[in-house]
């Protein structure tokens, strides 16, 4: 707990730190990677180059300062961070590294404004945040490891099937090498993985694209031309190859109740929607499944959705939107997803879930807000570092 003097320093200096927090974050990552190169494998280089990772760190620090005395809202923010950390296997020993480098970055950016008292107060604030995260993460690791089919740390899985879903998306079915049971996940969640590529260790997380079955997990990956890991999966990995998995995580899960559900996805953002749709349908809820893609060649899971539609004809409505359809395509709509299109399909009092490219999600969120959908009924998740949908692209 911070002392009253430290609280006063934090209150007085927060505006300055907040003003410079993105610049601090940009200094922080190169500094940490130079001092502790072993942690670099935990981060996606593309997210560093795009600025997504520094913005996420900056946003988390500012949010913590603003919400640390509002437990309910703070739990929501910390929950997202814990999800990402669990999928990467972050442990207590990582936190001193971050704290050291963050304080150095603050000192470098703010210079003489960082007096001994200021440094002491912000160090105490970081220790407070780190303690909360360590506690929450330890609970999550323990709860997962002690459930049927769970494990602690990483567990080796083998690719038992590789199946193309479209011209750019391929599914990989993974089964544990030890032959044991597989812990259930909540539909909509993702899973962390660790693998070696040309001698280097890399971490990623991918949505679990199939419902829990107690035997295997399925991930479905889009091949990105500049994506080191996605190209490795598509071009080099095959049935029989192995990798390590971490616990499932993620907050994009179905809200309890019997209200309708509208699932809105763009591109590979469809992957967490399939298990969400199946769960909602099995609960007897109406589902509108709206998917936007470039054309029919890159649209995935058409056969799987048709099977769901046949199984639940009175509950499931599938809507396709193509931006550049081929002559042989027959989408329901051509163009972009906007408020007018959503208004034609949006069920009354539904819960809305959106996943896709950041700009797509921002446009959908604005459209839903325009239609009067309350923020409490609008759910989304970023595949990369968490950002604000209100951010100007």
TrEMBL record:
Domain FAD-binding FR-type: residue ranges: 152-255
Cofactors required: FAD; heme b
Any one GO MF annotation of this record: metal ion binding
Catalytic activity, EC: 1.14.12.17
SUPFAM superfamilies from the UniProt entry: Ferredoxin reductase-like, C-terminal NADP-linked domain (SSF52343), Globin-like (SSF46458), Riboflavin synthase domain-like (SSF63380)
Catalytic activity from the UniProt record: 2 nitric oxide + NADPH + 2 O2 = 2 nitrate + NADP(+) + H(+); 2 nitric oxide + NADH + 2 O2 = 2 nitrate + NAD(+) + H(+)
Domain Globin residue range list: 1-138
InterPro entries for the chain: Cbr1-like_FAD-bd_dom, FAD-bd_FR_type, FNR_nucleotide-bd, Globin, Globin-like_sf, Globin/Proto, OxRdtase_FAD/NAD-bd, Riboflavin_synthase-like_b-brl
Record key words, sorted: Detoxification, Dioxygenase, FAD, Flavoprotein, Heme, Iron, Metal-binding, NAD, NADP, Oxidoreductase, Oxygen transport, Transport
Gene Ontology biological process: cellular response to nitrosative stress; nitric oxide catabolic process; response to toxic substance
Role this protein plays: Is involved in NO detoxification in an aerobic process, termed nitric oxide dioxygenase (NOD) reaction that utilizes O(2) and NAD(P)H to convert NO to nitrate, which protects the bacterium from various noxious nitrogen compounds. Therefore, plays a central role in the inducible response to nitrosative stress.
Family named by the database record: Belongs to the globin family. Two-domain flavohemoproteins subfamily. In the C-terminal section; belongs to the flavoprotein pyridine nucleotide cytochrome reductase family.
Protein name, UniProt field: Flavohemoprotein
Organism encoding this protein: Chromohalobacter japonicus
């Amino acid at each position: 707990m911070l002392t009253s003097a430290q609280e006063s320093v934090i209150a007085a200096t927060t505006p300055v730190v907040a003003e410079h927090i993105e610049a601090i974050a940009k200094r922080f990552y190169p500094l940490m990677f130079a001092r502790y190169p072993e942690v670099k494998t935990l981060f996606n280089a593309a997210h560093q180059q795009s600025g997504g990772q520094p913005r996420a760190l900056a946003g988390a620090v500012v949010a913590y300062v603003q919400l640390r005395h509002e437990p309910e809202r703070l739990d929501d923010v910390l929950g997202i961070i814990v999800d990402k950390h669990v999928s990467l296997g972050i442990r207590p020993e990582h936190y001193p590294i971050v704290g050291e480098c963050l304080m150095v970055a603050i000192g470098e950016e703010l210079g003489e404004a960082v007096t001994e008292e200021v440094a002491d107060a912000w160090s105490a604030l970081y220790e407070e945040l780190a303690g909360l995260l360590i506690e929450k993460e330890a609970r999550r690791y323990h709860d997962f490891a002690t459930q049927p089919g769970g494990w602690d740390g990483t567990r080796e899985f083998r690719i038992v099937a590789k199946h193309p879903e479209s011209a750019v998306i391929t599914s990989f079915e993974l089964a544990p090498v030890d032959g044991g049971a597989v812990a259930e996940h909540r539909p909509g969640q993702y899973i962390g993985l660790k693998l070696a590529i040309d001698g280097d260790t890399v971490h990623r997380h991918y949505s679990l694209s199939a419902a829990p079955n107690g035997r295997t997990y399925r991930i479905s990956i889009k091949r990105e031309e500049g994506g080191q890991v996605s190209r490795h999966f598509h071009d080099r990995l095959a049935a029989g190859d192995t990798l390590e998995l971490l616990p499932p995580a993620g907050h994009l899960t179905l809200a309890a109740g019997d209200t309708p559900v509208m699932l809105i996805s763009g591109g590979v953002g469809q992957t967490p929607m399939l298990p969400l749709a199946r769960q909602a349908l099995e609960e007897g809820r109406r589902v509108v499944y709206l998917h936007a893609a470039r054309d029919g060649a890159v649209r995935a899971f058409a056969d799987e959705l048709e099977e769901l539609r046949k199984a639940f004809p009175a509950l499931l409505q599938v809507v396709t939107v193509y931006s550049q359809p081929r002559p042989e395509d027959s989408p329901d709509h051509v163009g972009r997803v906007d408020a007018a299109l959503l208004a034609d399909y949006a069920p009354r009092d539904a819960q809305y879930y959106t996943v896709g490219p950041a700009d797509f999600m921002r446009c959908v969120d604005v459209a839903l807000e325009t239609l009067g959908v309350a923020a409490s009924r609008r759910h989304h998740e970023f595949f990369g570092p968490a950002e604000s949908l209100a951010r100007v692209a």
